[in-house]
Amino acid sequence: MNRLILLFFFWLATAVAAIAQQTSFNEIKDRLDTGYRAKKTIDPIKIDGLIIEQTWKEAQKTIYFVQNFPTDTLLSKAMQEIRVAYDERFLYVAAKIYKSIKDQPFTTPSLKRDFRGEAFDAFVVSIDPFMDRMNAFSFGINPYGVQREGLVVNGGLVGEDLSLSWDNKWYSEAKIEEDYWATEMAIPLNTIRYRKGTNKWLINFYKLDSYNAERSSWSRIPNQFSPISLAYSKPIVFETPIEKKGLNMSLIPYVSPGSFIKPKPGGTNGFTASSTIMFGGDAKIGIGSSLNLDLTVNPDFSQVEVDNQVTNLDRFEILFPEKRQFYLENADLFANFGMDGLRPFFSRRIGVTRDASTGQNIQNKIDAGFRLSGKINDNLRIGLLEMKSAAIPEINEPAYNYSVLSLQQRVFGRSNLSFIFTNKDGIGIKDFNRVAGLDYNLASRSNVWNGKFFFMKSFDPVKTSDNAVLGTTLFFNKRFFDARQTAYYIGENFNPEVGFLRRAGLYRLAGQVQPKFYPKKGRINRWGPMFDYDLTVFPARGVTDYDVNIIFNLQYKNYATLLLRIRNDYTKLTSDFDPTNSGGEKLKENSSYNYTSFICNFITDQRKKLSARLNSRVGQYFNGTRVNLDAEINYRVQPYGSLSSVFSYNRLRFPQPYASRDLILFGPKVDLTFTRSLFFSALLQYNNQINNINMNVRFQWRFAPASDLFIVYTDNYFADLLRSKGSAVVLKATYWFNL
Q1: Total-model pTM
Q2: Which of 71, 147, 151, 216 could lock 76 by a disulfide, CB 3.0 to 4.6 Å apart?
């Protein structure tokens, strides 16, 4: 208990300092003094990429953007003209992005929707209707007219706070002209959640310019922050209040026939074939102007791309991201409690389970469910989820009801106090698991201070004591220096069955400090050393894990990066462990190891047609040695797609009687986009660590906005025998109706 009290006061001291930072209003006053005044239009606007309507001639024109990369003190090298208008149904945005030279080339990964990468060309609009500077809608387009839309959470602190898995129906077009490229967007107001009758939102525009290796934005965003950062958005003031007209409801039904081949149960030879046809769908219903109700009946996620396999040398479960559309809007209300590796709710626990006989993750049918999420008022958000999964008798999986309640109250400007309660109840069996949690999420006005304090407690029929978590993390980020500190305690019996937990019964301290230097000349944009550490202590065992890292970073002006690291690890095993994770002789519990390695990471210029991400590690590993090479190679056939492959090789050598292994993961992928609505991808993954070959082929035709036809083929084989573990061919058609 004394340690918990010390931990609490550590958090309290840092939180007080951070709250004090929130009051330093003068440093951001300049970004609140100016904004955009949007006029209401009654003239029709044709979305064709030709900015010729009278509305655009009369609209306020914004022309100055400030660089975010490589510096944040200069205007963008090429000019732009941005205009905004609106009517009762749409928010309209028009942009002219001028070229630096007449024949300026543009970079795009493909013609596929929701493009992403280190380097490409794009124009993006970020809309924060509730002006909380923590959540926003993002709509982007590239010179080839390819759309992307996403949701920004956590204030856009890091690039991962933008989720492009969210999908919605909006309209746009782009054209490449001699001196510029232009775009027009029409974003349905029903797509955006906002307070009814408001006449002010927050907005920002940013562009990505691959030719000049530049990121820039209308409202200046300091270089140490991502261009998705919401702390620096400016007001957009509407000529008349925004009202929502008509029914705000969308229906998204689907039909999905499929054929499946599975090995006969009990390890006998032969296969069984079956065919099914599934019907179901989702509904999105706007309740008022700021709440959204998602309903699903018999959902099917067969169109979701397969997870990329990894070589797992860790002792703990790997966290894969959620990609399913139903769980994504306002996902932060459910998914962001606690911190990485310690979550009270993880949506992939619902609808996905593990078949112990094959070791593969399989779909666990969901009968029905709903999600209510959004704003109750300017300061209070709510999330409510209820799902029912079906039983799987073949693997003894019972049916469950899943319930989640989340409340988030805004305090101190951009910070919030949040509560979550999760409940998992077995149907027909005496089994339940519940977790209650409280987070204080800190975000200073200038985004310099970020962090959180969290407390959670689990409840189940067996584990009734030492079942709580208390922790904090704090991040300080300035242009020339950043630092992070994390500390938490996890009770031995803390058990979040609907969440994600690597291990329990421990204290953890982790942190980093990093000075940053910016040369005035040359090809290097930023360089600097970094010190990083991570310490784990079990009360009854003492220190069981630590790693200490001395790092040197280089970031070039062409987006290339180089990282060199010397790492020293100490591990005292809390259970028997095979360091190859492939069935060899195990190192014994309570044995301890100290080992040192050298690590090098290099990312090449992603604007080139041929680019790569290379990672290497050489040195000691437990009581042996490890030589590692990870590579991701990509060749872009612009604009029609890419040929890529991941490769991972681990040479693990140990003294007898421990097994030495050469672990190989190989995953070539073809990703073709014939048009902006016709896509094909094929992925082959060979992983000798889990003795598996996986093949996934996906064809997608977007025949109408947000409406798709998918044909998906998947197959798994034992890598050593080339014997099938089962295969499936699934067709799925969805259509988006706006009512």
Answers
A1: 0.85
A2: 216
